[in-house]
Amino acid sequence: SYVLTQPPSVSVAPGETARIICGGDNIGRRIVHWYQQTPGQAPVLVISYDTDRPSGIPERFSGSNSGNTATLTISRVEAGDEADYYCQVWESDTDLRVFGGGTKLTVL
Amino acid sequence: EVQLVESGGGLVQPGRSLRLSCAGSGFKFDDYAMHWVRQVPGKGLEWISGINWNSVSRVYVDSVKGRFIISRDNAKNSLYLQMSNLTSEDTALYYCAKDSSGGVAASGTLDSWGQGTLVTVSS
User: Fold this and answer.
1) Of the partner residues A33, A42, A84, the one whose CB lies closest to the CB of residue B95
2) 3-state secondary structure of B94
3) Residue A105 in contact with residue A83, Cβ under 8 Å?
4) Do B29 and B96 contact (CB within 8 A), yes or no?
5) Between chains, do A45 and B109 touch, taking CB under 8 Å as contact?
6) CB contact under 8 A, B95 and A43
7) List of chain B residues whose C-beta atoms are within 8 Å of the C-beta of residue A100
8) pLDDT per 10-residue tile (average), chain A, 108 residues
9) What is the pLDDT of residues B48-101, one digit of tens each?
10) Given CB atoms, is A42 within the 8 Å cutoff of chain B?
11) Which residues of B37-75 are buried (b: 16+ CB within 10 A; e: fewer)?
């Protein structure tokens, strides 16, 4: 099955830019969604269809997808952005959904 | 406002069965595919099953295929997961999630999630 690879952790200072990558074979040919999960809470969709921001998600959140890497970018990081972030794709051959292993964003 | 409320979790012995339910409200339930996603405490998300709007298409991850059955009752705005032959590896928080589209054969997002119900498999 399709594998999505994420770094276990990313650390960034407040006000800086965080980039969380999601690697996969030709992932640029797939549609990627991103979810944020704060401790004790259910996941929340933060980026859909590679680049779309759902209603209520700050403009500081953006996404891109090309080649073998999809990227979630969080600009002007705030303490409240500290969370686990997961990428997810649809595997068209099997109709399965696949999640990356998740990246813990730490705001220093 | 979309609301998804899971129930049915609890402590169950290995080899036994359990049925989870998810009640949806705030949206037209029968327009959307639905999914179950689980999370071992402290670990990542694992998608395990999805069902399209009219129950014609159901998909499962290999680790639960043949043991879990996803179903829905659109008249009751409810999603179910019948789990059998449970093992300790099934211990997790189980979330139901709404798809942004009606089909599982699509790249829709999981755009709304419940708060989860905890299943513990232990003797």
Assistant:
1) A42
2) strand
3) yes
4) no
5) yes
6) yes
7) 44
8) 96 98 97 97 97 96 98 98 98 94 98
9) 999 999 999 999 999 999 999 999 999 999 999 999 999 999 999 999 999 999
10) yes
11) bbbeeeebbbbbbbbbbeeeebbbbeebeeebbbebeee
